[in-house]
Amino acid sequence: xxxxxxxxxxxxxxxxxxxxxxxxxxxxxxxxxxxxxxxxxxxxxxxxxxxxxxxxxxxxxxxxxxxxxxxxxxxxxxxxxxxxxxxxxxxxxxxxxxxxxxxxxxxxxxxxxxxxxxxxxxxxxxxxxxxxxxxxxxxxxxxxxxxxxxxxxxxxxxxxxxxxxxxxxxxxxxxxxxxxxxxxxxxxxxxxxxxxxxxxxxxxxxxxx
Length: 209
Ligand code: AMP
Hints:
Elements: E1 2-7, H1 14-25, E2 29-31, H2 32-41, H3 45-56, H4 62-73, E3 81-85, H5 91-100, E4 105-110, H6 113-121, E5 123-125, E6 132-134, H7 161-184, E7 188-192, H8 197-208
Parallel strand pairs: 1-3, 1-4, 2-3, 4-7
Antiparallel strand pairs: 5-6
Helix pairs in contact: 1-8, 2-3, 6-7
The structure holds adenosine monophosphate.
């Protein structure tokens, strides 16, 4: 059983590492951001409620996120564990998760703010297959097009400068205290997330063994 979460500020590389580790461990990679964006794209009542918060970079209310997450971890493919990326983001979410499906390992991606701003503002994503690119460190082969399916790459609305500032402020205020929550329970491992994806990946593997 692997119940793992990646904690850290937006832009730390959690999604990139989660895709790789989840495949290695054969557990689903659950990104609450992706789950909420899918709800918003499908225009479900829950997605419509979440959309305004997401666009401006504020947190979606706990009750909404918890509903989406609990439904997802209740599915059969999550029976042997899961890798959470972007959840928990508040101490209330962490506390609820403890009573539903306690995590056995939490990896904290640590890195300085200026690196985060650079990474977020140069991020582009494929709207079709969700592959993530970085215009500086991991550009697509053909400018503006996904390597896998040729779709036109887009910038997430919340990767624009105003929303980045909000997201980093929200992170410092509400999400950073969760680090202490898991440290106090002896389940936190901190890694230096400034390196290349391969360097960070080695630390992630060591932290989750
Ligand atoms: P992400 O893709 O993880 O950067 O999430 C994008 C946005 O989705 C965040 O800025 C929030 O608006 C929302 N979101 C994702 N996960 C959570 C969560 N655990 N709690 C509250 N809001 C969330």
